[in-house]
Amino acid sequence: MRKVAVTLAAFGIVMCTGATAKSAQPIATLFGRSGKHNAYVITLKFGSGRKVRTIPAGTYLFVIHDYSRLHNFALGSQTENTRLFTTGIRWRGTKMYTLTLPPGNYAYACSAHFRTMNGTFVVTG
Ligand SMILES: [Cu+2]
């Protein structure tokens, strides 16, 4: 009985944070950038510079550079209609997030200018 409760509690924490992954090693590091030189530009790329379009399901380290006090970087799952993380629009700096992504469609955007500053990628099963 006690073991079940502990398991459920752990599951609850996982569901709330959206990240499972204390034990999982990231498959890759993905670099998000928003608003460099205050430009209305947002990107999500591999270390090689290639744009992220399709990735396999798994755990990823997101290194997010929010360069501007005009812009932010938010990531969400379109499939689950959830926001996974966001930086503050008036905040500027670098943050890292480790997320385990199930298959689905994902979108990133600047919340203040999401019509023009946005991108999508697909996580495959
Ligand atoms: Cu913006």
Mean pLDDT across the residues is 88
Q: Helices and strands: which structural class?
A: mainly beta
Find the count of extended strands (DSSP E, 2+ residues): 9
Unreliable stretches (pLDDT < 50, length at least 5) are 1-21
Report on the architecture of this protein.
It is a single chain. The longest helix has 16 residues, at 2-17. The model is unreliable at 1-21 (pLDDT under 50). The protein has one helix at 2-17, and strands at 28-34, 42-46, 54-56, 58-66, 74-77, 82-86, 93-101, 104-109, 118-124. It is mainly β and 125 residues long. It has a single domain (18-124), classed as Cupredoxins -  blue copper proteins (Immunoglobulin-like, Sandwich), CATH 2.60.40.420. The strands form 2 sheets. A 5-stranded mixed beta sheet has the order 3-9-8-5-6, with no helix packed on it. Strand 8 and strand 9 form a beta hairpin. It is globular, with a radius of gyration of 15 Å. It has 1 helix and 9 strands, in the order αβββββββββ. The chain binds copper (II) ion (CU). Copper (II) ion (CU) binds next to loops.
